TrEMBL record:
Superkingdom, natural source: Eukaryota
Sorted UniProt keywords: Repeat
HEAT repeat spans: 165-203
Keyword Flavoprotein: no
Pfam family, one: Arm
Protein name as it appears in the record: Junction plakoglobin
Amino acid sequence: MPYHSALSSLCSQGLAVMVVKDVETLRDESSSSNDGYVALFIRMLGVDNDPQDREQAVVALWKHALGGKHCIDNIMKYRGTVNLIVNLLKSESDSACEAAAGLLRVISSINLYRNSVAESGAIEEMTSLLTRSSLSSDVKEQSICTLWNLSVDEKLCVRITSSDILPLLVKFLEDEDIKVKEAAGGVLSNLTLSQSNHKLMVEAGVIPKLANLLKANEEDSKIIRKVARNALLELAKDEYNRILVMEEGLVLVPLVGAAAYKSFTPALYSWPSLPDGTKIEQSSKGPSRYGASELLLGLNVDEEKAELEEAKMNAVVGRTQQQFLARMGAIEIEDDTKSKVEWSSNQRMTLLPWMDAVARLVLILGLEDESAIARAAGSIADASINEHMRTSFKEAGAIKHLVQLINHPSDVVRLGVIRALDRLSISNNVCRTIEAENILHPLTNLLKQSKSEISHSLTAMILNILIRILDPNKEMKSKFYDGTVNGSNKGWDVVRHPASANGNDMIASELASRNNYLDRRQNIAGGDLVDSTFLSCLVDILKTSIPDLQRKAASILESIVAIEACVEQLISADIESGLVAVFRQKSLIEVEYSDKPDLQILELEEAGLAVSAASRLLTKLLDYEQFRLTVNWHQFTRLLRAVLVSSIPLQNKEWVAACLVKLSTLSGQNSDFENPINMEVTLYETIPRLIEQIKSSFSPEVQEAAILELNRIVSEGMIDSTRAVASEGGIFPLVKMMENGSDRAVEASLAILYNLSMDSENHAAIIAAGAIPVLRKLVLSQRSQWMRALRLLRTLPT
């Protein structure tokens, strides 16, 4: 072993570089002598040499490379050096792997040599190395730090992400060694800089792991918290990822600058109150002997009466911490040094635990900086993703600030504030608090004063808030739902009242609650809701060509018409022309074959919702005689009949059909099937609805009731009823019910299918639905329906 002998000789002379204690000896030698030693050790890296020689050589070169760029240049001038170093990553010796990875880490820190390291297969070899079950922390650290250097290059990021290293990096975020976690977090932070990597990283589960690291309050984890924050901020630029981050208890907060907080003026020497403005009850204790109770007001609080629920306690703690930081001038010092991620318009953000973030955002709402207020309001809107967050903002006192800011002269501030209130009002509990702040007046004024200039998005948000405030079922919903999720009307926990003998009392209680709400609304009839300008504004919105705004305006008017005083003003505002505009939408009267079917379906759904809301409004208006005396019966009947046969979704035709029937009844037309209105309602709404119930209902009782009603309609011989059943796809569910339904359902199915079989065009569909085997089974079983089954079987071409 010549190289081993040479190394031993060098060691005996005290000249071996990096192997003996005097590491600096070689670095101080002349350039020519230095080159000779480096060349010798590079030759010793060859794969045909003894593993011990190779290990000692790579250790020597690693320590030599730590001398600076000129030492690294000295190593890299020999071609093939990096390949030999990468090959050592396959060694079974942890010492050799650590030295090889450490040397690659030093080399990759130089921009010039980064591609050389990547092209030598270092990423793939390190991936293989890191998958070993038993690996020292030092090897992990050096390997991952090399990847950290390589991930600076965007092109190399793609290679790292596409390899198997990503799940390993996520796993190393939970490693016991803090340096390994820091290195893994650094690589992931660099990978997030490329948006194309976000989907893979989220699927690998990186968000929960990074969030846990950021929330950890360990003094020795400042670096990992910094890289975790930057990585999460990059991921949170995507709306979906932002929700995932907030679900981990972290909220985006704008960095507004320390100067903005100079306008903060805490309420000193005032009686203590909760963040939402609730005053804490003062005890009846007398003054203390030395006047301490006059200075320390908290001594006057009755501890037994001051017990707070958890949400209020969190609000108090968060407010105290953030106000203390603001008064000390240290509120953004830590965040400003850690957050280097910039969003649109150079607006920097940071991430805080939800309790601190809620208090910080509410504090910013009370500042004078318009930009800071607008950004805080936007963050509140983004953070209001669930009932917990919406309630937290309510308890922190955000509602009062936001309502006061509706009249702010800045358009940007108003837009952010309305957006925040829109998101917060999704919660029934928060919505009641918003209503208690007398928000109706500023909202209606904003809608009236700016109706010609206001944007569609702002109009839609104002209408959303008004709909929720004026919803007569709001109090009943609060008894059945604990919360809502992301704007949905479906609660997290549905509270169902148990069935009992007092069920009628419960229903009566709910109706009484609804009537009380309407009575309270009647008390404000002389105010904002019955203002003629406001009502005219809503009617004008009905005349627009935007179905979403039309639906919302119609829903608000539906609630307001419960106040009889409004009807006359609506007639004066030409409510009839507004309703006509809704029923004459372009997507309803123009049937086109579009090359974008998905867009056409979306337009029909939006139009259907608007038409349904307008139909409900028209139905309620018809209860008032003064409206019936002015309405054009024939025009509305013609328009609604056209809507009924249109392609809007079936569920939106229910109120159209009900309104048509009411128009028909009030106009004195017959109520039997010969009435063309009743016939169209049956063909285009009743029959499709019954078939849909048979297809999709999970309740056998509902399916049976639907099939019996369908049999009644068909057996009465209405024209085109059998054709409507066939065209709506009713044959297949009827055959299925014939096989699995109850005796009554089987008999009704047989009767309907027999009527359908009278038209030979339906034979192929009946046979394709599998009716023949089912009919034969019924005949052979000698069940009570076997004669009907035999008769149907004989009509089919078998």
